[in-house]
Amino acid sequence: MVVVPVLLWSGDASEPVDENAVGAERAEAVARTCAACHGTKGGFETDIPSLAGKPEAVLEAQLLAFKRDEMPGATVMPRLTRGYEDDELRAVARYFASLEAN
Amino acid sequence: MGLLGAGTLLAAGGLRVYAGRPSHAHVAVVGGGFGGATAAKYLKILKPDLDVTLIEPNRRYYTCPFTNLYLGGLRDFESLGHDYRELQEDYGVRVVPDFAEDVDVDGRRLKLAEGSEIAWDRLILSPGIDFRWGALEGYDEAAAEKAPHAWKAGPQTHLLRRQLEEMEDGGTFVLVAPENPFRCPPGPYERVSLIAHYLKRNKPRSKVLLLDSKDNFSKQGLFMEGWEEHYGEMVEWVGLSNDGRVIRVDPDRLEVETEFGTIHRASVLNVVPPQKAGLIAHRAGVTDESGWVPVDPNTFQSRKAPGVYVIGDATEAAPMPKSGFVANNHGKVTAAAVVADLEERAVPKPTWANTCYSVIAPEWGITVANVYEVHDGELREVPGSGGVSPSGAPADFRRNEARYAEAWYAAISQDVWGTRPPG
Fold first, then answer.
1. Kind and range of the H or E element at A22?
2. CA of B135 to nearest chain A CA: how many angstroms apart?
3. B155-173: per-residue pLDDT in tens?
């Protein structure tokens, strides 16, 4: 395996590049974090709900409501969603909605 | 040679060398816990034509998270065991049941205890922790047979449980907690909670004493509130400022001595000793004088050895804690960084989060949750995000977090190892 160092526009190969703000790759990367409680690709149903294949509008409304503290009784989700931009949450909703439900 | 029979097996003077298939990059992952098993699985999800070899000596892996529920009588030990069939059969990870005892970073070879070698293009180490035997006077491997640490799941966990079962009603359980950093920051406090639960039911005249080398600990206010609610006088916590720091252990007498000379006698003594990164990290030369591994916060590539990535408890990743959730997160981010590196693409922006559940009593759970980012080359909490459960929350809030703790354990186990029943 020969590795050719690639010069990026940033001039530093160790500096991460985030050229398209919330593209599909970024949405998937954020969504991978969700898997620790919702299962791989959001598809594991327990007392914590599965996310795969749920309607995009519902997921988006819920994520934004968590972030705005408009979900009475919510536990960890308001604290977590406040760590992301609204557009990231929308992209994550779109990603989970695009997956097949289990 | 596992399921990927297409892998190259080179024989050189009787030495067996596992390599990947020609023209396929080969990533070796050491350690099949929350970090390593996740990394192996997500490497195959992200790049199915990659050859991935996972080296883990245990055919069945028992998690340290949730051993406190077993110790408290709330959970069967076997429910904490996971194997690698799903990674092998569904994801195509080659699993080698062996112990990685040395590594040649320049030659890109791993040496396994049984004599074979692994040739790799990229190496991910997820070795967990080792104990700094003797760093606390009197506490070495032999002492742990009398005063268990039970900080790695397995025989030590069973030993502690047996000692609790044999303890007389009216005895004192003593837990000695270390300074930061250490594996599972809320772990000692969850442990005394659930052992108090067991004692309250079975040996109600007993006491629980936590001697701490710190004045502050994870979710402190919530633990204190929960102890008062459920265990009253039974649980006593003594912090650093009140002479809580233990400086010497006598495993034969089950006594400990504190900084200012107080001797505490235990009926059952549980010592959580000072820690460092697991063995292979030291062999790879990626640790620093702290005993832990400094890494690039965007990729978790070692700052000392290019091509070597280190994840999980072994790393210096503060403010991210040494938790199973975080190790799982490291595994995914590092898998994506390794794939980008192999494909000569820019490193994707990492996503860092943690959620830690602690169970204080059967229907009483608490959490800390955080999101992190890299800012000016350092990890930090995303401003305005994260935090702990509210203090003084109603019982149904605590009950929900206890319920979600169980759900979290099932879900993260699915994400790391899968859900196949034992084969």
1. none
2. 35
3. 999 999 999 999 999 999 9
